[in-house]
Design goal:
Layout: E1 4-11, E2 15-21, E3 32-35, H1 38-54, E4 59-65, H2 72-80, H3 82-85, E5 89-94, H4 96-103, H5 113-126, H6 137-170, H7 174-177, H8 186-194, H9 199-203, H10 206-216, H11 224-237, H12 243-277, H13 282-286, H14 295-305, E6 315-317, E7 323-325, H15 328-338, E8 347-348, E9 351-352, H16 364-380, H17 382-394, H18 399-421, H19 428-432
Parallel strand pairs: 1-4, 4-5
Antiparallel strand pairs: 1-2, 2-3, 6-7, 8-9
Helix pairs in contact: 4-5, 6-12, 6-14, 10-11, 14-16, 15-18, 16-17, 16-18, 17-18
């Protein structure tokens, strides 16, 4: 008969607080604190081996919260240790929200590292996660790149928002009149950087200004006269800042544009690293066969999902208590829940809530890449375009957001299927032939 020892570890920069809990929920040994270091790992390993030698546990479940990077080096050592593997050790990384919700069961317990370790262990004992942590370092390396790109994208969006706030001070009509297709196009950036104010541009004849813009853009503007007329309207309709304020605003805009250019170069570099790493992952490369899904989105989705086979292990019970082997639909549902792309039911007695909010409690990186990929699919694939339009019409508010998120949820089955079968994408029309 299987008897599991549940181990909870609460990580911080300095410490790894451990709690060992028996199958009946009682602590096996008093709380132990180890350094979050290699010697600390050796100390915990020794404690585990001694405990296993004096008790009849057949398996060990070790769980920790996915908080920052504090847990990862320790878990890599746990996964690689042959002595622990001999005792059927499985590792689980818990969503911090799961632990927070479970802590409500212990309302009389203080919020301390010691108690947190016990709660992590007991949560694993009571509601053991089905999918263990995958220590594939190649996947982890790719995930580092895709998550770093996500970080840079967020920084870039914040910098552009900050830039637009100061651009409003310099020329408040610039974004409203839109003299160029985008504020952050090459020609637009050069125009903003050239002069402290736009007054000099307003004083030029339209033809002369058009000629300057044409030369500045490298002859890429389709209608420079139109851009010149719009730019002069911006200058004429914008508030005039005092000279003492105009120069600092201009200098800040110049500095922010430099930072934006730097972030864009960093993103391009990381995308190059991602493309160079993809040949190690034949199954993930199959996602590139989907129209609009390039190396970045395929890597972001594939790295976060990891090995699809882990979602197919074990059995699933139906409403009548019958069990069956897990299938691809079950794997799809599991991945959707990991991404937070699901809508929990809310029922009580005869009441069933009609409005169901998206969970959003899962992997934010996976959710981001799935939604970005869905935005490409709705433009390029008829099946997903029709689905998006139908959900857009059905929505009563936030039409685009709701339709896009539902399209992302639909696409989960596509990505899971291709990763599982390791085959290229075939459109709905091609599958019918």
């Amino acid at each position: 008969m299987t008897s599991r020892l549940s181990v909870g570890i609460d990580f911080s920069t300095k410490w790894a607080d451990a709690s060992l809990v028996a199958p009946d929920g009682t602590p096996v040994v008093p709380h132990q604190r180890f350094d979050n270091s290699l010697p600390g790992f050796q100390g915990l390993k020794q404690l585990l081996l001694e405990t296993l030698a004096t008790h009849s546990y057949t398996e060990v479940d070790i769980a920790g919260e996915a908080t920052g990077m504090y847990w990862l080096p320790f878990f890599l050592e746990l996964a690689a240790d042959p002595d622990l593997r001999a005792h059927h050790t499985q590792l689980f990384v818990l969503n911090p929200r799961w632990v927070k919700w479970y802590r409500h069961s212990f309302s009389q317990v203080d919020k301390t590292d010691r108690h947190d370790a016990f709660i992590i262990a007991d949560r694993t004992r009571v509601h053991r996660p089905r999918v263990p942590w995958d220590p594939d370092t190649l996947v982890l390396a790719l995930r580092c790149f895709t998550r770093y790109r996500h970080h840079l994208i967020k920084l870039l969006a914040a910098e552009k928002s900050f830039f637009c706030a100061y651009l409003f001070l310099k020329a408040n009509a610039y974004q409203r009149l839109a003299p160029f297709s985008t504020v952050f196009g090459a020609t637009s950036r050069m125009v903003i950087e050239q002069a402290v104010t736009l007054d000099t541009l307003a004083a030029l004849p339209v033809n002369d200004l058009a000629a300057q813009l044409d030369a500045l853009s490298g002859h890429t503007l389709r209608a420079p006269e139109h851009n010149a007329a719009k730019l002069q309207q911006v200058a004429a309709q914008s508030f005039q800042l005092p000279a003492t304020l105009a120069l600092p605003v201009h200098q800040i805009l110049e500095a922010v544009l430099q930072h934006i250019a730097f972030l864009e170069s960093q993103i391009a570099q990381v995308e190059g690293w991602i493309a160079g790493y993809l040949p190690h992952f034949p199954a993930i490369q199959q996602l590139r066969s989907i129209p609009g899904i390039g190396p970045v989105f395929s890597a972001g989705i594939g790295a976060e999902i990891g090995n699809v086979q882990r979602f197919l292990r074990g059995t699933k019970s139906d409403a009548r208590g019958r069990t069956r082997p897990r299938n691809l639909r079950d794997a799809e549902d599991a991945v959707a829940k990991i991404a937070g792309l699901w809508w929990p039911r809310s029922e009580s007695g005869t009441f069933a809530a009609e409005d169901r909010r998206m969970a959003k409690s899962g992997n934010a990186y996976l959710r981001y890449y799935l939604i970005q990929a869905a935005d490409q699919l709705r433009h390029r694939e008829p099946e997903y375009s029709a689905f998006y339009r139908r959900k857009f019409r059905e929505a009563t508010k936030h039409h685009h957001k709701r339709a896009l998120v539902l399209t992302a949820r639909k696409s989960v089955g596509l990505f899971v299927g291709l990763l599982h079968r390791n085959e290229p994408y075939r459109s709905k029309e091609a599958r019918r032939t």
